[in-house]
Design goal:
This protein has about 140 residues and is α+β, with helices and mostly antiparallel strands. The protein has two domains: about 35 residues; about 70 residues, no CATH class. The chain has a four-stranded antiparallel sheet. Strand 2 and strand 3 form a beta hairpin. The longest helix has about 35 residues.
Length: about 140
Amino acid sequence: MNRGTPLLSSALLLLSSAALAQTPAAAPNSAGSLLQVLAGLVAVLGLMAGAAWLLKRFNGSRAGSNSAVRIVGGVSVGSRERVLVLEVGEQWIVVGVGAGRVNALATMARQQCAEDVANLTPATSAFPGWLKQIIERRNASQ
């Protein structure tokens, strides 16, 4: 009886594997699966782009209109350094901005042409010459 049990179990195993080999397995439709994955990816990316656009549109307009500080002009003086003129109330503050630090360079009364300077394009702006004059005046008074 012990000899017949392994023989019987191996015969059943052989028959079951032969039966499984004869039944056709449903092959996955690779083109349909790929199309479904791509459609899902496009939908997710579209939702992300739409959310970013909405955040930029609604948060940007609120912060710009109620801001107490306005950038009048600026110039790049190095790869990571800039000099900016900020308007706060009725005065201008010349600020040096570098990697990880912001320094106030000078403070002056608000100039008459603040709106004109703000509307100029950077290519036609006379800011670099104006800044040079201010720095020379500051150095001469010290």
